Amino acid sequence: EAAVTQSPRSKVAVTGGKVTLSCHQTNNHDYMYWYRQDTGHGLRLIHYSYVADSTEKGDIPDGYKASRPSQENFSLILELASLSQTAVYFCASSADRANTEVFFGKGTRLTVV
Amino acid sequence: GDSVTQTEGQVTVSESKSLIINCTYSATSIGYPNLFWYVRYPGEGLQLLLKVITAGQKGSSRGFEATYNKEATSFHLQKASVQESDSAVYYCALSDNSAGNKLTFGIGTRVLVRP
What we know:
With 113 residues, chain A is an all-beta fold. Helices cover 0% and strands 51% of the residues of chain A. With 115 residues, chain B is mostly beta strands.
């Protein structure tokens, strides 16, 4: 069974602080993604990566950085957390074939206070 | 840009009754998107329920069905007889045909099945 593991599962951060969300996959997938979900919105793509040491901007990258140090690991970094970044964040992975299934982690609930 | 609109909020249905969740899409950057339904059970990540990549075709899984209607730009999800275990959040989504599998999601519809 394909597995995507996110840590932490829940976090409270202070406005202006740095937050790092981590993601690890054991699927041997080339693609990894970070999405966020807010009340009133579907999941929106923040950053993605198709190879280690390279990341790409998604639809809403402002205020976020991403890091892909290895095929298995993909981090999302909030250098200066803001109230508007309170959301649930999902990491996902997929193979590099078109139309293939995307596998999601269980999500990280981030609250910025 | 591309967008997906689906039934908003929560749908409550009694066990053994039928369920329909409406989904329409707008794919301005691609002519024929690939269409998906994902489901999120309590405490779990999203998982693929079904997908259809060819217009006019129907996908099915776990008793759910959805037909890719290109003319109506719709991909409604239906089940004839729901069970309590179908209580979850359902997301309609689309992607283009690139290898990136980047998904555009609808807002999600929470389904509560009452025994």
